[in-house]
Amino acid sequence: MAGTRRTLSLVIAILGVMAIVFGGVFVYQGISKDNLVKERMKVEKVSIALDPDNPKQLTQISNTDDAQKAADTISAHRRAIAPSYQDLLGSGRFDPTDPKHLTYAQAMNLENYLYMAVTAFGLIQVVLAAGVFMIIVGIALGLTGLLLFKITGTPI
Predict the structure, then answer these.
(1) Where are the alpha helices (DSSP H) in 1-156?
(2) pLDDT by residue for the chain (156 residues), tens digit each?
């Protein structure tokens, strides 16, 4: 019986170590992807005027809220050109020489880029939270396993 308890306590401690390792991987991946998205936005000089009274003062987009505001602003401007892509085209085809068509298409592209950034930032937060949770659970499991091992009377 004591041997089974010792084995179980070691299994719990090993699971704790594994949870800490996997949690560390999640945290590392979350931080590295957050840095990647922010760096790509910096390289592309994606920025927004956060102060409506000072539209020339631009702020680098580096979080979900700013990306969402920028995408929503572009969406509103794009819809001022035409309520939908179908409305823009009417019964015709896309004409890249038509400035209205070209502006609309470029706005859609940038808007989608920013909404993808919103999604990426959100997913990064989920990955970081999951990683931190795994580390906490891993520490709890590891300590529980070691405590059980000690209680069984076997020296650690």
Answers:
(1) 2-43, 64-81, 85-89, 99-151
(2) 667 888 899 999 999 999 999 999 999 999 999 999 999 988 988 888 777 788 788 888 889 998 999 899 999 999 999 999 999 988 789 988 899 999 999 999 999 999 999 999 999 999 999 999 999 999 999 999 999 988 886 554
Place of tokens 């706005």: 107
CA-to-CA distance for 16 and 3, rounded, in angstroms? 20
pTM of the complete model beyond 0.85 = no
Identify the three-state secondary structure at position 57: coil
User: What torsion, rounded to 10 degrees, do the Cα atoms 38, 44, 50, 53 define?
Assistant: 160
CB atoms within 10 A of CB 94: 12
Structure tokens at 10: 């070691």
Q: What does residue 60 show for φ and ψ, rounded to 5 degrees?
A: -60, 135
